[in-house]
Amino acid sequence: MSEGLTPTQTITTHSPTGEVKIHSSTPIQFYPINPPENTLFAGSIYTTHTFPTVLDGDDDIKRHESYVPHGIGVENGTVAVMNKFMPGAVCPAHRTGTIDYGVVVDGELELLYGDGESKIFKRGDVIVQRETYHGWRNPSKENETMVFFVAMAAKPVKVGEEVLGEDLSAFGM
């Protein structure tokens, strides 16, 4: 991981006369998502709760600031998150109820899927995760990996007659 990489979250808004101003700018706070190993960390960046998002009167900011996560996605909204994978970290297999856009910010990330199949993504690569059952692994034994994800609400995927649905049991959810 690049030395000194400390991402911040900056939120813009409008003054009463419509001019642009900074609402807030703070370092992203990371929290472990796989205790007791503590090798996977998530830093919440922003959530929206309607589609389209209502920006009037900073309604979206108020909803984001009061949001308490209950899984990966938000019904009818989005979740933006920065994930850190410590060297060798493995994220267990799961299925979200969302379509996820991921960008590898730094390091490498291995997508684990199927029966032992995998694909490596490197810095700058983009992943579109469409409610498929998958896991992640940082293949490096020395370097952290950082990935930016945006998860958007999606209708449950149906394959044939079976509705697959979210599966976060590996996370205790």
TrEMBL record:
Superkingdom as given in the UniProt entry: Eukaryota
Domain Cupin type-2: 84-149
Pfam families, per the entry: Cupin_2
InterPro entries xrefs: Cupin_2, OryJ/VirC-like, RmlC-like_jellyroll, RmlC_Cupin_sf
Protein's name according to its UniProt entry: Cupin type-2 domain-containing protein
Species whose genome carries this gene: Orbilia ellipsospora
Lineage: Eukaryota, Fungi, Dikarya, Ascomycota, Pezizomycotina
